[in-house]
Design a protein that fits this description.
The complex is a heterodimer of chains A (132) and B (280). With 132 residues, chain A is mainly alpha-helical. Chain A has ten helices and one strand; from the N terminus they run αααααααααβα. In chain B, 34% of the residues lie in helices and 24% in strands. With 280 residues, chain B is an alpha/beta fold. In chain B, helix 1 packs across helix 5, helix 4 crosses helix 6 and helix 6 packs parallel to helix 10. Classes of the chains: A mainly alpha (132), B alpha/beta (280).
Amino acid sequence: MKPDFEQFKDIPGTTIFTIEKAQQGFELNQFCMSLRKAENRTEFLADQRAYVDKFPMTEEQKQAVLDRDFQRMLDLGGNVYFLSKIFASDGLSYVQAVSTMTDMNTEEYKQMMLDGGRNIEGWRSKKERGEA
Amino acid sequence: MARITAGVTTSHVPAVGMAVDLHKEDEAYWAPMFAGYEFSKKWMRENTPDVAIIVYNDHASYFGMEIMPTFAIGNAASYGIVDEGYGKRPIPDVQGHPQLSTHIAASLITDDFDMTVLNVLEVDHGLTVPLSLMYGAPENWPSKVIPIAVNVVMYPQPSGERCFALGKAIRDAVESFPEDLSVQVWGTGGMSHQIQGARAGLINEPWDRKFMDDLVNDPETLQFKPHLEYMVEAGSEGVELIMWLVMRGALGPKVDEVYRFYHVPASNTAVGHLILTPKE
């Protein structure tokens, strides 16, 4: 059956990790996996530029890592479970890291979650939101 | 003969594992969630299975991008705990049941499920958080475990129909194992959550509650829900819920609902939990 990668494009504020994105992000995600080892986390944090240069990522991918621009990393084929190895190295929780991809600060984001999370109304479709 | 005695579903939020490990269960943030599992811990003490088949997904913990099996089954005598970047959880290793997992793997492959066989595997929060929620923090886990890993991270994930059918095939496999064993099937992950992008933090409680109703009462229809609906309505990571269909398929046509719990939030996630028993 012909795969349908287009079907996800209308979901607002969402990057679906498809097999195509996985291909694009392979080296970025491989770098992330290296951070499962404590000694690599130490080496990465000691000299981040030198550490990312050990991996055959694109310069854009490396810069997004150094900038901790998680949305950019998603755009370049990263997947959040892989990217979690970066923010775990930084000692950040999922909530702290995830909130950086929204228009809220961490405290506002935490409060939203305590209040029941982000309401889906208005968040189903880019077309509905006038974003497409 | 081995038999399936119950099914459990539960979310597997990593922060829940940390809360257990750091003894934060009584803190104001966590207390309402852990209170919802008190019944389950007691029920599990009274109904401890010999083996729990735990359907879970790896979160870039043991599998990287090098190998991404759609369905995989653990076939080892024991499974270590993987370091997910925060250091290993201080919990006991998980003990397998190689005789039963060998039988199930062979049975599933013979039934045309092209399982990847994992003779070495370290397990992450997807499998260990449900153990902590059901069993607390014992010195050793009271059940043997057979891990079944499903790719829910990379699209295309297996379809709901395929997950449901896998559950049915697991039931056939268990029931043809000659030893007298009590076996539970646990489906983990979900409920609604999205942990990436500008839409992060999405929770859809009405959708989650309907999903639980349909899982109990109408799984034959629920199995056809397309991935797109999970991702739109339950968030990009809500698609983990297809793993609950594996559990449901293994329980047979009719079930009794022993327990249900729903809570928002745990970290970024809606927590949902069911205990079901097959109705003969």
